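Exercise 3.2. Students should predict the tertiary structure of the chain below and write it as C-alpha cells, then compare their answer with the key that follows.

Predict this chain's 3D structure.
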Amino acid sequence: MKDQSHKKSALTEKDGISQPESFSKSSLDKVVRSRKIQPSSEELVKGILAGDISALSRAITLVESTNITHLAKANDIIKACLPHANKSVRIGITGVPGVGKSTFIEAFGKHLTSLGKKVAVLAVDPSSTISHGSILGDKTRMEELVKDKNAYIRPSASGETLGGVARKTRETIILCEAAGFDTIVIETVGVGQSETAVHSMVDFFLLLKISGAGDELQGIKRGIMEMADAIVINKADGDNVAKAKLAKTEFNRALHLFPAKNSGWIPTVSTCSAYEKTGIDDVWQTISNYLELVKSNNYFQEKRKDQNQYWMMETINEQLKNHFYHHPEIMALLEQNKKAVQNDELSPFAAAMILLEKYFK
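Answer key:
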C-alpha cells in the first residue's frame, strides 16, 4: 500500500476574520475617570432642583450611605433642598405579601401621571437577616411605570434597623420633592413594625387587602386598620368580584368599631382590580376628598408639624445610640459585660447600668 500521508487533506481550516475588541479602551478609561470625579454638594443640589434624575439618585445614595464621610455631604444637600420641599402629597401603601402592592402602585402611578402629576415611588425592600442582601426587584415588577418620564422608582434595602431606614426614607422624600415630584408613594416591607414608621411620615395611609385571606393576621389587623385612612380590596376581578364585595361589607362593619380619627375623616372601603385597572380612579378620588377635608380644618398642617417634631426626637435617639455603641471605652467594656451576663455573673440590668454610668462619666 502506498503511503498517502504526504497528500493534502480536503478538510482544511481557513483563517477567519479576527473579532474586534468588545469595548473601546479609551471609552472605558473615560467612564472610569468620570466615576472617580464625585460631584460637589452644590452641583448635586443644582441638578436636583433642575429635575435631573441622575443627580437625585446620586444624592439619595449619599443619604443612604453608612460611610461617615458621606454624612456631612448628605446633610448639606438636604439643608439646601429643604426650602424647596413640602409641596407634595405623601401616600403610604401597605399590605401583606401577595396582596399585589407592586401591581397596584404601577396602575395607580400610571393613572396619576395621566393626570399630569409627577410620581416618585420609594419602595422599601426587605433585607435578609442572614446575608443582609436585598433583591430590589420593584423596578422589574413595575416595568410600565419605570419607563414613564413623569415617574421615578427608587427601591431601597430595609437594612438591619427600622429606624435608620425610616429616617433615610424621610430624607429621600425631601430630595424627591425638591426635584419636582408632587406625589410621593411609599411602599412598605409588609405588615409589621415598619407601618408605624411610614405612617409617621405620610399624609394618607392606604391599606391593601384581598378577599378570602382569612383571619390569620388577626393579632396585628386592628393596629394596622386603625392607622388606615382607606382600605382597598384588590384583585376584585373574575370569580373574585362577589368575594371582594362581601369583604368590603365586613370591613365597613369593622371600621365602625374603631374610635373616631382626630382628622375628622371617616375611613372608606373600596374594591379595585390593579390587573384590570378598574377602581383606581376611585382610590385617587378618595385621597383627593381626604386632602380637601384635612386642609380645610388645618389638620394637614398640624400633622406635618407633629411629624417634623417626631423625627427630630427619633434622630436624637438614633444618634445617641450610635454614639454610645461606637464609644471606644464602651466597645471594650461591652464585650466583657456580655460574657458576664451569659455566665450569670451579672444581671442584664446591672450590666446595663455599669455601661451607662461609664458612658455618662
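Discussion points: Confidence is low (pLDDT under 50) at residues 127-137, 215-220. Residues 299-325 form the longest helix (27 residues).
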